[in-house]
Amino acid sequence: MWSMCGALLFAYFMVDVHYYLRVAVIFLTGKYCRRRLPFTDASTIYGIVLPSDVDFMFTHMNNARYLREYDFARFDHATRSGVICEMFKTGGGFFVAAHTIRYRQPVMLFSTYKVLTRPIWWDKKYIYYDHRIVTLADGIIRSIGYSKSCLRFDVEEFVNVKHPGIDKPVMPDDMIKWIEYNKASSDRMKMCLTEKDYESTFKSKQG
Question: Mind telling me which CDD domains this protein's record contains (predicted)?
């Protein structure tokens, strides 16, 4: 009995048990219990701010949890739209290449909320998602962000075959600028193999 308790306690501290349980629940409910989702439709998951989610002030959700909720929401959309099944078939991955987020208002302790996620652009390699966290009591958008997910299959071909008749939405102006920033950052980092190389890219102004 004690050895089992010790093993469970060890597993809890060595592995993020809650994360893997949540992913398993999202995958199983998304695949077997919830309706299939057209690729450009928004998926919705729900949550509540628990004491384990708050920051050191113990009043509102800490910054890292927003990105974590975006991860869960993206996984829900990918499961219900068939992206995850395609990933399993091709033996690829579902990696995040970039994130941006704007915190508009805090989500307070014990507040209930929903996370809305939808693809708003894609090309052969990437899917660009729009994320929003909205509190249920008042409908206020508490945070908004974009994520760029990298896949190892042709996303455009997948959409054309599995979701025929879907057209790409018009790319928002702020996403155009975000993609330009990501490209500029990538070009800069291609010159940096070490931390010293990176530091050298900060050029001081000459008087």
Answer: 4HBT
- Does residue 108 lie in a domain region? yes
Note whether residue 186 is domain-resident.
no
β-strand pairing of 94-103 with 43-48: unpaired
The dihedral built from the CA positions of residue 61, 66, 68 and 72, taken in this order, carries a sign that is: positive
CATH (domain of 105):
3.10.129.10
8-28 pLDDT, tens digit per residue, is 777 777 888 889 999 999 999
- Is pLDDT of 206 > 60? no
CB 136 within 8 A of CB 91: no
Residue 97 lies in a domain: yes
- Token pair for residue 65? 């949890």
> Residue 101's domain spans which residues?
2-169
Q: Determine the 3-state secondary structure of 129 from DSSP.
A: strand
> What single DSSP character describes residue 201?
T
User: Containing H/E element for 57?
Assistant: none
Tokens of 25: 């629940």
For residue 206, the 8-state DSSP code is: P
| 95 contacts 25 by C-beta, under 8 angstroms | no
> Domain count of the chain?
1
Question: Which residue stretches of the chain are H helix?
Answer: 2-14, 17-32, 63-81, 83-90, 155-162, 173-189, 195-199
